[in-house]
Amino acid sequence: LIKLEKIDKIYKMGSNTQQVLFSLDMEINAGELIAIMGASGSGKSTVMNIIGLLDRPTNGICSVHNKVINDISDDELAVLRNKTIGFVFQQFYLLSKFTAEKNVSLPLLYRGLSEKESSIKAKQILERVGMGDRTHHKPNELSGGQQQRVAIARALIGDPEIILADEPTGALDSKTGKEVMNLFLELNRKEKRTVIIVTHDPGIGDMCHRIIKLQDGKVIAS
Amino acid sequence: LIKLEKIDKIYKMGSNTQQVLFSLDMEINAGELIAIMGASGSGKSTVMNIIGLLDRPTNGICSVHNKVINDISDDELAVLRNKTIGFVFQQFYLLSKFTAEKNVSLPLLYRGLSEKESSIKAKQILERVGMGDRTHHKPNELSGGQQQRVAIARALIGDPEIILADEPTGALDSKTGKEVMNLFLELNRKEKRTVIIVTHDPGIGDMCHRIIKLQDGKVIAS
Ligand SMILES: Nc1ncnc2c1ncn2[C@@H]1O[C@H](COP(=O)(O)OP(=O)(O)OP(=O)(O)O)[C@@H](O)[C@H]1O
Ligand SMILES: Nc1ncnc2c1ncn2[C@@H]1O[C@H](COP(=O)(O)OP(=O)(O)OP(=O)(O)O)[C@@H](O)[C@H]1O
Ligand SMILES: [Mg+2]
Ligand SMILES: [Mg+2]
């Protein structure tokens, strides 16, 4: 489904460069539940941004559904991304001026659903992550773990084929974290979504089909 | 050292109110190493902001060193806070226009230390949290866990009497998380700092003198 071949990522910093990914290879098959683990700074979010079509590699080839996507335009990339991928960001990136409900319903409004329909679906998915009683709060009126759950709801509302979650339980207590993992497990097993989770929690790794380990920008186990 | 008595926190939301803390009592003694645990949304960050003199309760009495501080002015509160408390925020709150080193050295510059001296101390503490090779990066050029460690360094650089850390290992892999905990343990045992850590990690709770458990805005165990 997604294939990364010999991927480099190199940032320019003034007159210096910082290489972050080194000839990285990775294959994700449809319907897999995968954990990506590795030390802080090892390149997990960087890889996720490339898999999630939010960033382009400096070198190497990305393919989605066997179609090479390195050379498609930014607009085409955005269309493919919005259609296929739901992304839970490590930093949430909720819109501060909007309520939880509005934040979650936005992807559906963009697809042309009515306000009424989007709002109903948004409330449903917020209920599912235990946020049913806080739909009218803005992000700064929510706890860290509540904001994380709103970000999860927003990623899932468009029924994406591929779910990318960057440390989705980092701010959650273990009970709430388990509920979120059960939701991802259900989406994978019952609805056949491809789910890729960056996590520091070995317990989550154990629930997945396989664990891809990163170290210093390279895959050391798959 | 810090005493909270019958603390309420009530937010106004339009024409409604949201009560978040309910007649909460808490006592922190000098030199203690304390974990605060509880479900997402239970009030941990709210309590930390009151202990950290960043927020005032709606009702109830706060005392620091046996001096009631409810009625002191905002300026006096700020002076007391900057002198006594180092705060690692759940959302980090790093300044996006400055490098890691500048972010960490700012508290010392405010105290009147020279640029040279502040920069040396900042680099030392950044080295201590494993960030010695990234001091010139801005926050958006750092991974989530790297930003968290810069926030930790900034909280510690002023040698505060009281260290408040709101989920300081949430974005860290277990090895880096252990290194951070060892740093807090050392500050508590060798330097006698009072350390209060909000955490979802029972492993961290076990390392502390005691665990204060919150549920729905109340203390249920201490
Ligand atoms: N814009 C940038 N310029 C320079 N270096 C960068 C930039 N963005 C990220 N980096 C570096 O890339 C490396 C990998 O970052 P990444 O965010 O992928 O790590 P991570 O594995 O997700 O870490 P964490 O577990 O802490 O979230 C880090 O060492 C970081 O300093
Ligand atoms: N400005 C606000 N207006 C209304 N409600 C608020 C506001 N700020 C916080 N809350 C509510 O206060 C409650 C407690 O929030 P707090 O941030 O203290 O939780 P927490 O225990 O730190 O959770 P987490 O583990 O998710 O970080 C939450 O239910 C939240 O919705
Ligand atoms: Mg990351
Ligand atoms: Mg919190």
Summarize the structure in words.
- Two copies of one chain form a homodimer.
- Chain A is of the alpha/beta class and 222 residues long.
- Chain A contains seven helices and ten strands.
- Chain A has a six-stranded mixed β-sheet with strand order 6-7-8-3-9-10, with helices on both faces. Chain A has a four-stranded antiparallel β-sheet with strand order 2-1-4-5, covered by helices on one side.
- In chain A, helix 3 packs parallel to helix 5 (144-156).
- The model of chain A has no long low-confidence stretch (mean pLDDT 95).
- At the A-B interface, helix 5 and helix 6 of A face helix 5 and helix 6 of B.
- One magnesium ion binds next to helix 1 of chain A.
- One adenosine-5'-triphosphate sits between chains A (11, 13, 18, 20, 38, 40-46, 90) and B (134, 137, 141-146, 171).
